[in-house]
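User: My advisor, Dr. K., asked me to get a structural model of this assembly before our group meeting. I'm new to this, so sorry if the format is off. These are the inputs:
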Amino acid sequence: MEQHTPFTLLGRSSECAARRGEVRTRQGVIQTPVFMPVGTQGTVKAVTPENLAEMKAQIILGNTYHLFIRPGHELIERFGGLHSFMNWKGSILTDSGGFQIFSLKELAKITEEGAAFRSHLDGAKLFLSPENAIHVQQALGSDIMMCLDTCIPFPATRDETVAATDLTTRWAKRCREAHDKRDRLLFGIVQGGMFPELRREHAAALIDIGFDGYAIGGLSVGEEKQLMHEMTEATVPALPADYPVYLMGVGTPADLVEGVWRGVDMFDCVMPTRNARNGALFTSKGKISIKNARFRDDSSPLDEECSCYTCRNYSRAYLSHLFHAREILSYHLNTIHNLHYYLNLMADIRGAIETDSFTRFRHDFYSKLEHE
Amino acid sequence: MEQHTPFTLLGRSSECAARRGEVRTRQGVIQTPVFMPVGTQGTVKAVTPENLAEMKAQIILGNTYHLFIRPGHELIERFGGLHSFMNWKGSILTDSGGFQIFSLKELAKITEEGAAFRSHLDGAKLFLSPENAIHVQQALGSDIMMCLDTCIPFPATRDETVAATDLTTRWAKRCREAHDKRDRLLFGIVQGGMFPELRREHAAALIDIGFDGYAIGGLSVGEEKQLMHEMTEATVPALPADYPVYLMGVGTPADLVEGVWRGVDMFDCVMPTRNARNGALFTSKGKISIKNARFRDDSSPLDEECSCYTCRNYSRAYLSHLFHAREILSYHLNTIHNLHYYLNLMADIRGAIETDSFTRFRHDFYSKLEHE
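Assistant: The format is fine. Below is the predicted structure of the whole assembly, which you can bring to the meeting.
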């Protein structure tokens, strides 16, 4: 099949691999580099779609595994897809479910055919094949679908890594063949563990099959930051420059800066939302814990430099009170702040690449950090 | 001291005691009859002040006991009062803390001087006198303060009721004397248990002291609805017609209709917010439980007649999914719906009184109910 790229390159840094681009989905155009908030169960936890729109979120991620189990992709399809079901007008990327099934450990069994697993909710026996993973994502109405991949434990031997990566390639072919809705995008996932040459080989194998974009999978699984950066550096140059590159499940604000530096266009992570619910909040000076007693009487906003709804209207003392009182509003306000921080960071990064000042931006980013 | 009423009578029903009025606070003018959402710990649970404003909430209730214990009234005073601390621009009524202390049962000891009690959070020994209850409410920046009252268990003997009611009168005098911020309103609370003549006597005693409004306390404590209505009917005519009447802690939608019918101007209750979090939702046809399996695949909104944010944007199936998945958005969307239902009911009641069609309104209200 002839492949058309959904990516338009708008500019690149003269000093690193950072690039400014656009990804076209049937839902609209996404400005990259982009961060995608995670909406596991048909909602980005603790915020509304209007909150996301106000923060200028462009695309969110839905978890196929969770939605497959509850409420079921068929129900969501009857409701016109996930966009309509959850009232989200932006784009949606769905993962394939592979990572979650892999996380079930002894509840999952991987064969050539696919992944047999038991629901974490009720123990029901379920099966996801590569074809099925595509059909479920199509039913969900996903704009960007991901191939079913096998995840590789860390650490893993070279032999284990080769075997799992080869299976991912065979599954990727089957996903590509099952993909019959051409208005949706399908991304391949580069595995290869912590072996640079396996990463490069796998990238070549996936390019051979041909996808609308390429993801770097199997990172941020417990390895050192340096190793994660090395694997990114090994993979990105092996991918076609005119297709979007997505670093899956990454990461901290610094990880985003470093990923962009190395040529990544798309990121997702539960960190801003999950941390928010635990009271860990991102600021221009680093991460703070709102649990800390010193905030109980602090009349300043979370971050003096932040323009989010939470920072415009509430003091650290109030947020401290809500957190200690376990009020639902605490999760809401903290999540708005953290997502705004991530989305605003990406907007600033895009601006810096446009003016070819990303090196300076990265330097300033680190020099402001106090707490981490 | 000369007493000026904050109440303006705008109209009354020709067929019952229902009346349309306004209560002036330093924060603005409240259209009555009015329902006051409860914001126990410095937030109406699961919604923002903007959500409340969008639903046209005019006044909310803050719980003195809870705020006294955490984060403390002195901290809130340093932050410019509760309005500023929690970012709420409407009016605030604070209770006195009496009811919550009474609910602590064996942790509380009532003497002539006041109420000694232990914090439900850490067991700390605390004391609230009538004077102190006023000073704490002043520190909170309350627009409408309540006298510290003693609560009467149900059932109670006549002797027990007389003793507790007389103590409430003596405390009310002390509250009145301690009340030195004349831009705030102070309401007396009529007790008298389930004895109509004690209710009337107590009303007279409080009128003698002189307050800016009068509350009916000690109802909705486990008695039959009929008895609650009888006590309301015994009390309202004993109160001055040119002052606001507030029925504390009441109640169901039908209780509001019946309270208005008997001349009540103000209500508060945790029912819409608490029920929302338990999945019990109010509709024009009665209460439904979103837990019910029949809603899993139901594409209709919660209430076809409702114009709230939740009903405009989400299906029962989506709300069912969020509830079963225990998503925070479930509490948020359900609370918006239930509060909108209550506030909209009161707006409709005000409209019906204005056109002297409240009898018809009440008849229609009951004839539409299917589920309850």
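One thing worth pointing out at the meeting: Chain A has a mean pLDDT of 96.

User: Perfect, thanks a lot.
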